[in-house]
Amino acid sequence: MFMHNKRLQYTVRVAEPNPALASLLLEQFGGPDGELAAAMRYFTQGLAEDDPGRKDMLLDIATEELSHLEVIGSIVAMLNKGVKSELSEAALEEADLYMSLNAGGNSHTQSLLYGGGPSLTNSSGVPWSAAYIDSRGDPTCDLRSNIAAESRAKIIYERLINITDDPGIKDALGFLMTREVAHQKSFEKALYSITDNFPSGKLPGLAPYANMYVNTSQGEGDMTGPWNEGEQWERLDDVAGNLPVDGGDGLPTVQISDAQMAAYEAMMARLQSRPDANPTTGADLGAGPGAGKTTDEDLGGASDMKEAKAMGNAQADAIIAANSSQ
Questions:
Q1: What are 120-176's pLDDT values in tens digits?
Q2: Which pTM does this prediction carry?
Q3: In this structure, are 274 and 172 located in the same domain?
Q4: How far apart are CA 190 and CA 172, in angstroms?
Q5: Residue that finishes a domain, picked among 192, 223, 247
Q6: Dihedral sign for Cα atoms in the order 135, 136, 137, 140
Q7: Are residues 47 and 152 in the same domain?
């Protein structure tokens, strides 16, 4: 059950309307790293969580994210106040009104379609999507995703702070940015309160490959460090000489029935390519300057190709007839 307190969690002070800035701030209203996405991510995780401590934390943070959605939405609404009334009352001359609507970003969409109110879109006008929620139902996986989400949101707030000189907006955005830091710390503590939290899930990694570092990008710029060298790593530099790493022949195989094999062979006969053929194509016939080298040689062995296709079709028809009679 929710009860709404009409006072914001943090006071919003906007110096003057700025619809272009409002459009950019929508990134944290309806964008993938915004407050609605965070609230929905943590609510759905919290509702499914069985651990009482993590459940309480997730629902606390989810509810706070909704209050942050209210703060950022209020800033957007304040920034659109001037153009909202001017558009509604046609208070400006046509040219001036047009200029105000096209001040930048997708401000014209915000003004015309949403009347200056905050819309659940990102800064480019893309509607909010539940696809932004990437929960997997495993706390060691989801908490890491939450940590990354808070980190991304913190960076977006930094960039928004850097593009405005409105002191009141900078102050409010600084608060929201700092709460992302606090949430990240909570998620980190919750993750490391799980004794065996790496790797995610129950199944252990396969021993021969858990410590392998495969140096697949070689040449100038090769670097070593704790991520690929040291006592916990078995470095594989001769990649080609050690393929496949499981000691097999590296070839894919599948077991299929005799009927499936007959159909497969018929398909291959019908669709086989002719490496010795050099057919004239549409590109050859229509070639002009800049087309590069072309050929006017006729398809060699066309009759052989037709015979192969006919044979494949006959085999396929026979298989279909045999299956139909069973």
A1: 999 888 999 999 999 999 999 999 999 999 999 999 999 999 999 999 999 999 999
A2: 0.79
A3: no
A4: 27
A5: 192
A6: negative
A7: yes
